[in-house]
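Quick one, T. Sequence first:
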Amino acid sequence: MKFSRPRCGFFLVIAMLLSACGDKALSQHRTMARAVIERGGGGELFTDASTTEFAAVRHAPSGLRCEIPLSGEFSVEVFPPSAANPGVYCASAAADVATSYVAVHYGAEVDIDTAFSQALAASAGQASPQPWPGEPSAADKAPPEGLPHFRIARFSAAVNGQPAYLRVAMAEARGWFLQQIVSGPIAEAETIEASAGEGWRRTLAAFAEAP
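Structure tokens:
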């Protein structure tokens, strides 16, 4: 039995189709990002950071990039002028998994270990936490590749009276402290940890690249 060799034109058509799909996805994601920016009062603080993979907005002062899910709840809020320190918060929730990112400017007078201890007390202090015995995500164990040093704690905890997985991560750059908090059903801890690790690494890379 003989097989004919595919012609170059075949690969060209595939490439054109993939390019068209990518352009459509990028356009959709940029539309979503613009809607978020407009709800936040325009482009003074946020810029469109969308790619073909996901819609996103970047908080210009901190470098925090918030990925916008295609479905589920999503919100972005800038700290009010009355706040002791400037900052921004974005959160999403889908399928009983809640994810939030916070960037706060403390400056050089606060070290990351102090800030991380305070974050743990605020997020897990009332949840009767116990160390989660599972394995860190592959993304967390990957080489740092120039990313800022970070701290991560993973717990089995009681969230809203239910057994849950809780992850708290923090990094610091330019006086800004970036924090990730993820919680979800303990039965899905491994899946949540893997996804949270990938999300943290993407967010951390964007944070490190900020001017």
